[in-house]
Amino acid sequence: xxxxxxxxxxGNSRRRIxxxxxxxxxxxxxxxxxxxxxxWSLTGFATSLIILALFTxxxxxxxxxxTPIVADAANTAxxxxxxxxxxxxxxxxxxxxxxxxxxxxxxxxxAAKALFGGKLVGQDVSLHVRHPAILxxxxxxxxxxxQHRVEVTLTGIxxxxxxxxxxxxxAPAPASDLGTGGIRPxxxxxxxxxxxxxxxxxQMKKIERMRADxxxxxxxxxxxxxxxxxxxxxxxxxxxxxxxxxxRRFLGIMHEEALRMVRLIDDLLSLSRIExxxxxxxxxxxxxxxxxxxxxxxxxxxxxxxxxxxMLDLPESVPPVRGDMDQxxxxxxxxxxxxxxxxxxGTTVTIKVSLLxxxxxxxxxxxxxxxxxxxxxxxxxQHIPRLTERFYRIDTARSRQLGGTGxxxxxxxxxxxxxxxxxxxxxxxxxGTTVTISxxxxxxxxxxxxxxx
Amino acid sequence: MTGTRxxxxxxxxxxxxxxxxxxxxxxxxxQLAQAVHALVTRDNDLAEQIIANDEKxxxxxxxxxxxxxxxxxxxxxxxxxLRELVASLKITNSLERIGDYAKSIAKRTRIMTEESxxxxxxxxxxxxxxxxxxxxxxxxxxINRDSAKAIDVWARDTRIDSLYNSLFRELLTYMxxxxxxxxxxxxxxxxxxxxxxxxxxATNIAEVTYYVIEGRHMSDDRPKLDETASxxxxxNDQSGNSQ
Lengths: 453, 243
Known about the structure:
The complex is a heterodimer. Chain A is α+β, with helices and mostly antiparallel strands. Chain A has 4 domains: 12-65; 89-200, 2-Layer Sandwich (Beta-Lactamase), CATH 3.30.450.20; 204-276, Helix Hairpins; 282-453, 2-Layer Sandwich (Heat Shock Protein 90), CATH 3.30.565.10. Chain A is 47% helix and 17% strand. Chain A contains 12 helices and 12 strands. In chain A, the strands form 3 sheets. Chain A has a 5-stranded antiparallel β-sheet, with helices on both faces. In chain A, strands 7-9-10-12-11 form a 5-stranded mixed β-sheet. In chain A, α1 packs antiparallel against α2, α6 (202-237) packs antiparallel against α7 and α7 runs parallel beside α12. The radius of gyration of chain A is 37 Å and the shape is elongated. In chain B, 78% of the residues lie in helices and 0% in strands. Chain B has 6 helices and no strands. Chain B has helices spanning 2-40, 44-75, 79-112, 124-143, 147-177, 182-214. Chain B is elongated. Chain B starts with a helix and ends in a 29-residue tail after the last helix. Chain A binds chain B through residues 103, 117, 119, 123-124, 126-133, 135, 153, 155-157, 159, 334, 338, 342, 376-387, 389, 392-396, 398-399, 404, 406, 408-409, 427, 429, 433, and chain B through 15-16, 18-19, 22-23, 25-27, 29-30, 33, 56, 122-123, 126, 129, 132-133, 135-136, 139-140, 143-144, 159, 162-163, 165-166, 169, 237-243.
């Protein structure tokens, strides 16, 4: 916390003594010049001293008369309570900014500095907080009402939605002699400050939006297998009523279609679960080599079916990463099954793990990169930026034929986002595709990670 | 004593100018976000509101220009300060253009809502988000005097370009298949182009910012990925994986 300290008035008590003292001397001189004799003038001087004594008692008596130890204790207590309050404000995870009527930021807690940058304090608030709705509400709070509440979406890699409250607070009385850190008001006419507090409602809003998204995106995808099911049901009930052989064949296809719907729904559900938690970075320790061998084993039917090998290329020791075990398994499962599905038959898929000194996009955070390298047809450059879009397919028919849901990479992207990791896709048409994920190591848990691209 | 007072109030004036630019950038960025939101949600009322709001950006531009010219006229600044003042005029210009592009998106939204919805609209929020982040970061770079950040924004423009390329090709193919959608697709192309141009304006601001901070121009040519000038529709595109 960086409190703008007021000028503590050291010279105050001295300044208050001088006028009565002068008055006394003048009074004394007046008596002297009026030729009333030295005694009168001395009496006048003494009277002025009495006035002075009374004056100081009334104004600054408390400080002057109490013993130094008590004064110090009071000071320390006051300072301590101010410091404690500052600590408390700093610990609040919601951004808080104290703004003067002229829009200068007087103080901001750590959360606000993390959101808007460390140079907030002492500058015009609009240099860092630019959202027009917030600035508009600030002006309204200053000129009209005592409190305003607005909902804003802040730009970022992930949008964040905040409920922002601006409230007027009256400034404390001008600095008292106790020196408690009272804040100087900007001017006498505007004896107030504005507190800007922000409450993150992203998750709440996302849940609202998710329901609508689900209906919009998924209904089309769910309809395809469903209409095929209905078609076969009608045939079974009609032309193929007595054809045992056709019935068996149709039931097989219908089973396949039903399974596809289940896969799709599973994928959609896991995507929504990840979305809800996407701002909560996982905290578990995950051992990558163990996870990889489980994934490779689980996909053995697929790889042996296409006569493909999976080769693990691991460094000597692999430090654990910070993550969610189940989600990382899902990531590796999706990436490896893609490589096995789209790689040429009979080729080898390599999973290469390497240590990174610096996670891409981070300042100096070490990480782990896991690359899944296939030898397939490759992906041409114009598709690459859109691969992580939901239901984006380069070749719809082929994807359907291979049982893809169109959600695999979207799930990977969201899981990596939650892990503060990164997903990179690199491909050469005709040669193959390399998909790399980078994750922060467990040891530097808690530090700020890079962002998913 | 008088000397420091003059510098203090000069700084105050410069800060007022910076605050106006910053406010303008915030408004421009929000206009873009809202315009794309109105398009995706087919919200005509919001589109009208955006068109009306453009006036506010123009007023801020006027205010910023007036401030800058006043400072130049009264203080006859030199070196850093002069560079900053000239830069601020260029930046207001770019920000005003960004506002215009957002307004143009809102205007096209009115036509888009009269036609049936098309799926390709869904790429736009991502493009707009990239552009918004560029505006946000370039203004942070300008205000915090961070030339490394300016370079970062400058180099980032290729991402919007490649999204634009991908959409361009897709729409071209789509129009061949469904000629009845040519109106919607054409408007959509212009909208995407507007967002792409907003990215360009952000890189312009990045260049100006770099110049203010370092006192020299960025040397390299900006990486450009807009290759739609030579693009053809994709007919038999069989390359690549899908998922």
